[in-house]
Amino acid sequence: MLGDQEVAGLYAAADSGDLTSFQTQIPQLWRAVAQAEPSEATEVLERITGLFERVPRPAAAYLAVVAGRLVDRGAAPGTLPGVLADALVEILELATGFVTAWRRALGSSAPLPAGDGEQQDFDAAVVALTRSSRLPWRRGSTVDEAVALAGAWFTLGEWQTPVVALLHSREVRADFPRRPEITALITRLREDRHDLQGLRNLLAILDDEPLIVVHREQRRGYRVRISGVGDNFQLYTLLADTLIGDPGQGLLDGDRPEPSWVAAATTGPADAADQIDARFQLTDGDGQYIPLEGRPADIPLSRGSRVIVLDRVAVSRSWDVGRRHDCAAPEVRLDEILTVDEVDRWLSQVAGLIPTGLPAVRIHLSMRPQAGV
Q1: Percent of the chain having pLDDT more than 70?
Q2: How far apart are CA 39 and CA 262, in angstroms?
Q3: What is the dihedral of CA 58, 60, 61, 62, to 10 degrees?
Q4: Which of 14, 58, 227, 364 lies 20 to 30 Å from 149 when distance is taken between CA atoms?
Q5: CA-to-CA separations, 350 to 52, 182, 250, 313, in angstroms, rounded
Q6: Residue 368 pLDDT > 50, yes or no?
Q7: Which superkingdom (predicted)?
Q8: Residue 92, H or E segment
Q9: Which helix H or strand E contains 220, and what residues bound it?
Q10: Strand 305-311 vs strand 301-302: parallel, antiparallel, or unpaired?
Q11: What angle separates helix 80-106 from helix 119-130, to the nearest 10 degrees?
Q12: Residue 289: is its pLDDT beyond 80?
């Protein structure tokens, strides 16, 4: 069976406590299975998943990366999401502890080491954390504490990598364990570990989420369901593509987005077009402008539903094409066209448009949604 020898070697090293041998053999495993077919990748992933409970977390960090690569090769995740969620919570907790210990030992203004450091950076961090001081508020950590904290800090990037790979799947996102805990811990680290932002955005993706969308001027409304939408740039484009059409069929009057815009916002080439032009303005149920840089999860609930109110474009806007997550396939589905009475009821419950104070000029948002995670 593919990778048998390498997997057996890893178990032998883990059971004997030889962590140096264990870590040395992980790249050998990947070289042996890098071209695995999906069925083979699934078998290998099933066999290596048991290794995570046999070695300390930092020693298994690159094994976690290999597990994520096997998922990318088509392996069925199996029990991996639960294993990685537990490990990631532990690593994130230790990483927040590292920040506290570092600032306690070196002072609040001391810059934190980069999270992608080498062995010498790890060694230097352990020395810094254990350094004694005459200042009582700068108490050093024990060697064991410092090793655990620094190990988490410098391997956090590896641990997040396979979780990102898993969260590209809608099925995995639906049941991913400990999601609120992981999100809360990442939020605590947001000022110190900017490399976690992509993972945080993936965790915030809504799937099978109902929206109420009403057009104030045209008095039309819709029940829409979204999945896998990374930000409001993408949501805007796909809403326009879904809802603009034949008014005789209950859709909105207007110009549909160009096919190249839709391709760039979904699964086509991200550079299929230069820019996207606004078709309407989005506000929430409280009358507040919905920032395109935000995410659907940020749209507030209004009477139990996320409500989007469409208005005529007050300020001509455009933005660069692209999508935040290349591998998370988005969907915006029209479930139901509301009756006029239902539209009027929703419009009577939402706030009027709050003036933005923006000048009546054309605005181009030059920031491109960040893709690649």
Answers
A1: 90
A2: 33
A3: 140
A4: 14
A5: 51, 34, 21, 18
A6: no
A7: Bacteria
A8: helix 80-106
A9: strand 220-227
A10: antiparallel
A11: 50
A12: yes
Within 10 A of 192 (CB to CB), how many other CB atoms are there?
A: 16
Return the half-sphere exposure (C-beta side, CA atoms, 13 A cut-off) of residue 23: 11
pLDDT in tens, 97-112: 999 999 988 888 999 9
Question: In the sheet that 275-277 helps form, which strands lie side by side, from edge to edge?
Answer: 275-277, 317-320, 363-365
**Would you give the distance in Å from CA 248 to the centre of its chain?**
39
Longest Cα–Cα distance of the chain, Å, equals 80
CA-CA distance, 77 to 243, in Å (whole number)?
A: 36
- The 10s digit of each residue's pLDDT in 185-201 is 999 999 999 999 999 99
Q: What is the mean pLDDT of residues 304-319?
A: 84
Exposure of 136 in the CB half-sphere (CA atoms within 13 A): 0
Other Cβ atoms closer than 10 A to 231: 25
Which two structure tokens, joined as six digits, stand for 335?
């479930």
CA distance 45 to 77: 8
| Single-letter code of the amino acid located at 299 | I
Distance CA 65, CA 10 (A): 15
243: helix, coil or strand? Answer: helix
β-bridge partners, 307? 212
Question: pTM value?
Answer: 0.85
Instruction: Please give the Cα distance from 90 to 98 (Å, whole number).
Output: 12
Q: Using DSSP, state whether 319 is helix, strand or coil.
A: strand
Residue 289 three-state SS: strand
